Amino acid sequence: MTVQSGRRERKKAATRQKIADTALRLFLERGYEAVGIREIAAEADVAVTTLFSHFASKEALVFEQDADFEHRLAQAVSGRAPDEPLMPALRREMHAMVRHCTADGAAPVWRMIDGSASLREYEESMRLRHAESLAVAIAADPGLSRTPTACRTIARFVVDAHALAREAADPEAAVDEIFGMIEAAWEFTGS
Predict the structure, then answer these.
(1) Which ranges of the chain would DSSP assign to H, the alpha helix?
(2) In b/e form, how buried is each residue of 67-76, taking b as 16+ CB within 10 angstroms?
(3) What torsion do the CA atoms of 110, 100, 159, 112 make, to the nearest 10 degrees?
(4) What is the spatial distance between Cα 50 and Cα 47, in angstroms, rounded to a whole number?
(5) C-alpha separations of 29 from 34, 108, 115, 157 in Å
(6) Quick one: three-class SS letters along 109-135?
(7) What pTM, to 2 d.p., does this model score?
(8) What are the pLDDT digits (tens) for 47-94?
Protein backbone atom coordinates (compact mmCIF):
# COMPACT_ATOMS: atom_id res chain seq x y z
CA MET A 1 0.00 0.00 0.00
CA THR A 2 2.80 2.45 0.84
CA VAL A 3 4.58 1.77 -2.47
CA GLN A 4 1.34 2.36 -4.37
CA SER A 5 0.66 5.53 -2.42
CA GLY A 6 4.24 6.78 -2.96
CA ARG A 7 4.06 6.10 -6.68
CA ARG A 8 0.73 7.89 -6.96
CA GLU A 9 2.11 10.94 -5.16
CA ARG A 10 5.20 11.02 -7.38
CA LYS A 11 3.01 10.78 -10.49
CA LYS A 12 0.78 13.62 -9.25
CA ALA A 13 3.84 15.76 -8.49
CA ALA A 14 5.29 15.04 -11.95
CA THR A 15 1.99 15.97 -13.62
CA ARG A 16 1.79 19.18 -11.59
CA GLN A 17 5.35 20.11 -12.56
CA LYS A 18 4.73 19.31 -16.22
CA ILE A 19 1.68 21.57 -16.25
CA ALA A 20 3.56 24.40 -14.50
CA ASP A 21 6.58 24.10 -16.80
CA THR A 22 4.38 24.04 -19.90
CA ALA A 23 2.40 27.07 -18.75
CA LEU A 24 5.50 29.08 -17.95
CA ARG A 25 7.10 28.24 -21.29
CA LEU A 26 3.95 29.32 -23.16
CA PHE A 27 3.58 32.48 -21.09
CA LEU A 28 7.17 33.50 -21.74
CA GLU A 29 6.94 32.67 -25.46
CA ARG A 30 3.63 34.39 -26.19
CA GLY A 31 2.77 36.54 -23.20
CA TYR A 32 0.67 35.75 -20.17
CA GLU A 33 -2.54 37.32 -21.45
CA ALA A 34 -2.26 35.61 -24.87
CA VAL A 35 -2.29 32.05 -23.51
CA GLY A 36 -5.48 30.29 -22.46
CA ILE A 37 -6.04 27.46 -20.00
CA ARG A 38 -7.21 25.09 -22.73
CA GLU A 39 -3.98 25.68 -24.66
CA ILE A 40 -1.89 24.91 -21.60
CA ALA A 41 -3.83 21.73 -20.88
CA ALA A 42 -3.55 20.57 -24.49
CA GLU A 43 0.17 21.31 -24.66
CA ALA A 44 0.75 19.50 -21.34
CA ASP A 45 -1.42 16.61 -22.59
CA VAL A 46 -3.85 16.77 -19.65
CA ALA A 47 -7.53 17.51 -19.33
CA VAL A 48 -8.59 20.99 -18.23
CA THR A 49 -10.10 19.38 -15.12
CA THR A 50 -6.72 17.82 -14.34
CA LEU A 51 -5.07 21.23 -14.67
CA PHE A 52 -7.61 22.73 -12.27
CA SER A 53 -7.16 19.85 -9.82
CA HIS A 54 -3.54 21.02 -9.47
CA PHE A 55 -3.96 24.79 -9.87
CA ALA A 56 -6.92 26.87 -8.74
CA SER A 57 -6.42 29.60 -11.34
CA LYS A 58 -4.35 30.70 -14.30
CA GLU A 59 -2.37 33.02 -12.01
CA ALA A 60 -1.50 30.11 -9.73
CA LEU A 61 0.38 28.52 -12.63
CA VAL A 62 2.93 31.34 -12.51
CA PHE A 63 3.35 31.09 -8.74
CA GLU A 64 3.49 27.30 -8.65
CA GLN A 65 5.75 27.24 -5.57
CA ASP A 66 3.42 29.48 -3.57
CA ALA A 67 2.34 26.82 -1.05
CA ASP A 68 5.94 25.71 -0.58
CA PHE A 69 7.08 29.26 0.21
CA GLU A 70 4.23 29.75 2.68
CA HIS A 71 5.10 26.47 4.41
CA ARG A 72 8.82 27.31 4.50
CA LEU A 73 8.19 30.60 6.28
CA ALA A 74 6.05 28.96 8.96
CA GLN A 75 8.58 26.13 9.25
CA ALA A 76 11.39 28.66 9.82
CA VAL A 77 9.53 29.61 13.01
CA SER A 78 8.33 26.24 14.25
CA GLY A 79 11.27 24.16 13.04
CA ARG A 80 14.10 26.18 14.52
CA ALA A 81 16.17 24.84 17.41
CA PRO A 82 14.69 25.55 20.86
CA ASP A 83 17.42 28.04 21.74
CA GLU A 84 17.65 29.69 18.30
CA PRO A 85 16.32 33.25 18.11
CA LEU A 86 13.54 33.91 15.62
CA MET A 87 15.10 36.57 13.43
CA PRO A 88 18.22 34.64 12.31
CA ALA A 89 15.98 31.73 11.30
CA LEU A 90 13.69 34.00 9.27
CA ARG A 91 16.65 35.86 7.75
CA ARG A 92 18.22 32.56 6.64
CA GLU A 93 14.95 31.44 5.04
CA MET A 94 14.47 34.80 3.32
CA HIS A 95 18.00 34.62 1.89
CA ALA A 96 17.16 31.19 0.42
CA MET A 97 13.86 32.43 -1.02
CA VAL A 98 15.44 35.52 -2.55
CA ARG A 99 18.26 33.44 -4.06
CA HIS A 100 15.63 31.22 -5.67
CA CYS A 101 13.69 34.18 -7.07
CA THR A 102 16.75 35.99 -8.40
CA ALA A 103 18.45 32.95 -9.94
CA ASP A 104 19.45 32.94 -13.59
CA GLY A 105 16.37 32.90 -15.76
CA ALA A 106 14.05 34.50 -13.17
CA ALA A 107 14.14 38.03 -14.62
CA PRO A 108 11.78 37.30 -17.56
CA VAL A 109 9.25 35.81 -15.15
CA TRP A 110 9.33 38.89 -12.91
CA ARG A 111 9.02 41.17 -15.95
CA MET A 112 5.97 39.17 -17.00
CA ILE A 113 4.48 39.51 -13.50
CA ASP A 114 5.22 43.24 -13.38
CA GLY A 115 3.54 43.64 -16.79
CA SER A 116 0.27 41.97 -15.81
CA ALA A 117 -2.26 43.60 -13.49
CA SER A 118 -3.86 40.24 -12.66
CA LEU A 119 -0.49 38.69 -11.76
CA ARG A 120 0.49 41.67 -9.59
CA GLU A 121 -2.86 41.47 -7.82
CA TYR A 122 -2.45 37.72 -7.30
CA GLU A 123 1.07 38.23 -5.95
CA GLU A 124 -0.19 40.83 -3.48
CA SER A 125 -2.95 38.54 -2.20
CA MET A 126 -0.40 35.73 -1.95
CA ARG A 127 1.93 37.93 0.12
CA LEU A 128 -0.91 38.85 2.48
CA ARG A 129 -1.74 35.17 2.91
CA HIS A 130 1.92 34.31 3.55
CA ALA A 131 2.17 37.10 6.13
CA GLU A 132 -0.96 35.90 7.91
CA SER A 133 0.35 32.33 8.00
CA LEU A 134 3.70 33.53 9.32
CA ALA A 135 1.98 35.69 11.96
CA VAL A 136 0.01 32.65 13.17
CA ALA A 137 3.23 30.63 13.44
CA ILE A 138 4.96 33.41 15.40
CA ALA A 139 1.99 33.89 17.72
CA ALA A 140 1.79 30.12 18.35
CA ASP A 141 5.37 29.98 19.65
CA PRO A 142 5.12 30.23 23.45
CA GLY A 143 8.70 31.46 23.75
CA LEU A 144 8.09 34.57 21.65
CA SER A 145 5.29 36.23 23.66
CA ARG A 146 4.33 39.17 21.45
CA THR A 147 0.92 40.70 20.88
CA PRO A 148 -1.08 39.56 17.84
CA THR A 149 -0.54 43.02 16.32
CA ALA A 150 3.23 42.75 16.76
CA CYS A 151 3.22 39.26 15.22
CA ARG A 152 1.21 40.43 12.21
CA THR A 153 3.35 43.54 11.73
CA ILE A 154 6.65 41.67 11.86
CA ALA A 155 5.25 38.98 9.54
CA ARG A 156 4.27 41.64 6.99
CA PHE A 157 7.75 43.18 7.19
CA VAL A 158 9.37 39.77 6.64
CA VAL A 159 7.18 38.90 3.65
CA ASP A 160 7.62 42.35 2.10
CA ALA A 161 11.38 41.94 2.51
CA HIS A 162 11.20 39.33 -0.24
CA ALA A 163 9.70 41.70 -2.82
CA LEU A 164 11.99 44.58 -1.84
CA ALA A 165 15.14 42.47 -1.90
CA ARG A 166 14.45 40.75 -5.21
CA GLU A 167 14.11 44.18 -6.85
CA ALA A 168 17.39 45.50 -5.37
CA ALA A 169 20.67 45.70 -7.26
CA ASP A 170 22.23 43.43 -4.60
CA PRO A 171 19.42 41.21 -3.27
CA GLU A 172 21.57 39.48 -0.61
CA ALA A 173 22.73 42.82 0.84
CA ALA A 174 19.16 44.11 0.71
CA VAL A 175 17.92 41.16 2.80
CA ASP A 176 20.54 41.96 5.42
CA GLU A 177 19.72 45.67 5.39
CA ILE A 178 15.99 45.03 5.67
CA PHE A 179 16.44 42.46 8.41
CA GLY A 180 18.49 44.96 10.41
CA MET A 181 15.37 47.11 10.54
CA ILE A 182 13.06 44.16 11.18
CA GLU A 183 15.24 42.97 14.07
CA ALA A 184 15.16 46.46 15.62
CA ALA A 185 11.36 46.50 15.35
CA TRP A 186 11.17 42.98 16.82
CA GLU A 187 13.32 43.98 19.79
CA PHE A 188 11.20 47.08 20.32
CA THR A 189 7.98 45.01 20.45
CA GLY A 190 9.49 42.86 23.20
CA SER A 191 10.26 45.75 25.53
Answers:
(1) 2-30, 37-44, 48-54, 58-62, 66-78, 86-101, 107-114, 117-140, 148-167, 171-189
(2) eebbebbbeb
(3) 10
(4) 5
(5) 10, 10, 14, 34
(6) HHHHHHCCHHHHHHHHHHHHHHHHHHH
(7) 0.84
(8) 999 999 999 999 999 988 777 888 999 999 999 988 899 999 999 999
